[in-house]
Amino acid sequence: MEYLTKEEVEKMIKEGKSLKGLDFSFAELDGIDLSGQDLSGAVFTGAELRNANLEGANLEDAFIADADFSGANFKSANLSRAVLQRVNLRNANFENANMNKSQLLVCDASRANFSNAKIRQARLESSKISNAKLDNADLRYSNLRAVNFKNSSFVGTKISFTDMRKAQFQGAWFENVEAENVIVYGKAPW
């Protein structure tokens, strides 16, 4: 089975061809510039996109599993309804991203920036989001069960109506947090 190469994808972009719904499985696309591209419905199983630029890209309904997107730039990207499973997202930038109704399941987003991201009605179960920045992010109505938020920053973050059972907050910073009707075990850390 042949997989897309970085050169093939860059040629498709240069020629103005659609990347919508493409199968990028097992593609090695480290450092590629996919900014502003329509990648809705695309599949990235086992793909490597370390330090890729996805700023403003449309990844709506994309499926990403067992992939490496560490250091990737998702600033202002649309990841609504995207499914991410077992994805390395360490040091990724999701600033101003739309992640409403997305799923981050067993992902590692340590040191990621989620500032001003819209993550409403999402599932971030069993993911590691430690040492991350979630300032002014909107996480309302989300399932955050068993998420590791150790040493993360929640300044101006909206977390009302979330399920945070078994989530870890050791060393996390909470300031001006909107937290109405949050489900937690034990005493709330804010």
Structural features, described:
The structure is a single chain. With 190 residues, the protein is low in regular secondary structure. The chain contains one helix and five strands; from the N terminus they run αβββββ. The chain has a three-stranded parallel β-sheet, with no helix packed on it. The protein is elongated and about 55 Å long.
Q: How many structurally independent domains?
A: 2
Q: Given the structure, what is the number of helices?
A: 1
Structural class: little secondary structure
Low-confidence stretches: none
User: Mind telling me which CATH architecture of the largest domain this is?
Assistant: 3 Solenoid
Span of the ends, CA to CA? 51 Å
Q: What is the fold named in CATH at topology level of the largest domain?
A: Pectate Lyase C-like
Helical content stands at: under 10%
Task: Write out the strand line-up for the largest beta sheet, numbering strands in chain order.
Answer: 1-2-3
CATH superfamily of the largest domain: E3 ubiquitin-protein ligase SopA
User: Which strand-content bin applies to the residues?
Assistant: 5-15%
| Strand elements, count | 5
Inertia-based shape? elongated
Mean pLDDT: 96
| Main pleated-sheet profile | 3 strands, parallel
* Series of secondary-structure elements, N-terminal to C-terminal: HEEEEE
Rg, nearest Å = 16 Å
CATH class of the largest domain: Mainly Beta
